[in-house]
Fold:
Amino acid sequence: MDEASKAAAAVSERRQWERLMAMAAIGGFTDPDGHRGVNRACLTPLDREARRLLLSWAAPLGLAPSVDALGNLFLRLEGTDPALAPVLTGSHMDTQPNGGRFDGIWGVIAGLEAVQALREAGVTPRRPIEIVAWTNEEGGRFAPGCMGSMAYAGFRPRDAWDAVTDREGTRFADALREHLAEEADIPRRPLGVAEGPAPFAYVEAHIEQGPRLEAEGHDIGVVTGIQGSRWFVVEVAGKTDHAGTAPLSLRRDAVQDMLRAITALNALMHDPEDVLRFTVGSVEVSPNTSNSVAARARFTIDFRHPDNAVLQARGDAVRGVVQAALRACTAEVTERFHATPVAFQPLVPEAVERAAAAEGLRALRMPSGAFHDAQFLVPVCPTGMIFVPCRGGVSHHPSEYAEPAALAAGARVLARTLAALANG
Ligand code: GLV
Ligand code: MN
Ligand code: MN
Structure:
């Protein structure tokens, strides 16, 4: 048996599943339908508890931990040539507020499983392998997502989000400072390519979060690229009034103008081919009471498309369309996330494809509809992703589920991919 096959054979379905379930208990809850979800926001005590658990599994394997200025956490398996650029693998450990047990965390646990399997198979790769847990991929507590990977890649400066606040008014800078103080015992490392060398390659394992692999009977998604995303927040300002007395003609009703704006945006985002994704996922109204006219309404826009020309043109039109739709209020439109579509260069997807073939798995080349930290690694080094099917394509929900055997197959593909890249 060659080294990669030995490593794949050493992947333990049971160990990986038990670790996932142990992680799912940190921030875990059961929803009214009996689904077991996770709410583990970034830079919270729960996030830190999960990271400590990860560190407790990494220590007996001799993996060296380090953390950078954004709180990105790394675990390093030394290579026979430590001077070589490492192969990087991982994902994120934070969840959506009503999140599932697999989104993100599986990529980190799969990295650990693959590295442990390499160790147990007696494989010492030439290049170091580093497992990374990126800070704030979800953007659920502090918007936008992917802050850790964006800063790592030099896409935005490290202080770009200092003033962003969560719902309680806590500033990102303060949450990060507190977090880093709690992790003062972990050695600090330079922040990404702004302060250090680039990795040799990056590969991220993730549940598909869509229905294709399951519906079409594939075991592995060989991800070819990621569509583009733009996030906006719209703040509509009107005037509050008594619901029983103020004539409609005199009102400056923020909810009514918000509805006009969303209706106009639906027309802007209309796509007969059903490729475009447009979501208003968060709405806040103030003062939020039945018998008062709303003085303020705030809503978010999540807009995605694989074609950069469409992403640019329609995204750039958002502001004007909102302004033109208003009848009595004013509105401020702020863009807070802009990830252009990326295509992965062949090195990593080809390694993933070969690994899946060696495992006898049915693989499908496919793009990603969800964004991932991998999106920001593309300019930094050859990048790719491994998808595994998830039930019904459901994600960002407590009913998110992936079979233990499917996750083990994904970890075997990851182990082979890492072995190939780290000896390449
Ligand atoms: C990632 O969480 C996404 O929203 O695509
Ligand atoms: Mn994710
Ligand atoms: Mn997610």
User: Anything to note?
Assistant: The chain has two domains: 3-227+341-422, 231-339. The chain is about 35% helix and 20% strand. Residues 404-422 form the longest helix (19 residues).
